[in-house]
Amino acid sequence: MKNNNIIVIGKDSESWLGIKKSLVNIGFTVPSSIKSAASSLKEIIVFNPGIVLIEVNFKEKSDVLETAKKLYREHDIPVLLISDDTNEEYLHFAKEADVYDVLLKPLDEKKLDLVIQSTMKRHNSYLTRSKLKDIFKKVADTGTVPDFITLRADFKLNMIKFKDLFYVEAMKDYVIVHTKNNHYITHCTMKVILNRLPEDQFIRVHRSFIVRRDKISSVTNDELVIEDGIRALPLGGNYMKDLLGSLYIV
Fold first, then answer.
1. Which of 70, 118, 158, 210 is most enclosed, with most CB atoms within 10 A?
2. What's the DSSP call for residue 162?
3. Confidence at residue 166, expressed as pLDDT on a 0 to 100 scale
């Protein structure tokens, strides 16, 4: 879900109002209670911003630098700097403050929106990668087996639990992973994704379909029906023997 909350730390009231106006025009929410780097970090965190914009003010350099670092390093909130100059001192400050980008004034609303959306996507990808890294480290340390598959789709990494996955469908150089209420299109081959799925839970039933075993409702000579009648899938003759051999037939 998109987080429209943005905090602006301006170098003076007039400048703050101008930046706020631009952000409100493109659909963001900006609180009036937080305007300077001297505002407590707690105030900023409570508002739960998707991003923080800080206008460079060298009179408050230490406050700005400390706030930007803590927001990113301790609270995973991305920061963008706003500046009216790109001299070496500003660029060094931006690097030291761990910010994602520097926006030059005067602000163009279309470019401002583009940079904010791009920063949020990059930051969300970073958070997802960090989460996955922690998960895989835990798996390596404990020897536990993950109960999900990770798919690149819709410009993000999606963790789909095996129990929620109904079937996989081939589509040229892509596959479509179907759950009950959603589907994910990712660039992958059937062979690769089949190797990522637990063999005891999934089976290939056609050159174009992989099915979760416990989602199969019924089977005929040439097709099978997915749980709740969601869809009837073709059953390939080359896969019939393996499927029937895996069923508890009485």
1. 210
2. G
3. 95
Residues 16-40 pLDDT 10s: 888 888 899 988 888 776 666 556 6
- Cα dihedral across residues 158, 147, 163, 249: positive or negative: positive
* All domains of the chain in start order, with CATH: 6-126 (3.40.50.2300), 148-246 (2.40.50.1020)
Question: CA-to-CA distance for 90 and 222, rounded, in angstroms?
Answer: 68
Q: Which two tokens stand for residue 13?
A: 């009231």
Residues 6+ positions from 176 with CB-CB distance below 8 Å: 168, 169, 183, 184, 185
Contacts of 188 (CB under 8 A, 6+ apart): 174, 175
What per-residue string of b and e applies to 97-115 under the rule 16 or more CB within 10 Å gives b? bebbebbeeebeeeebbeb
Structure confidence at residue 176 (pLDDT): 94
Q: Is the pTM of this model over 0.85?
A: no
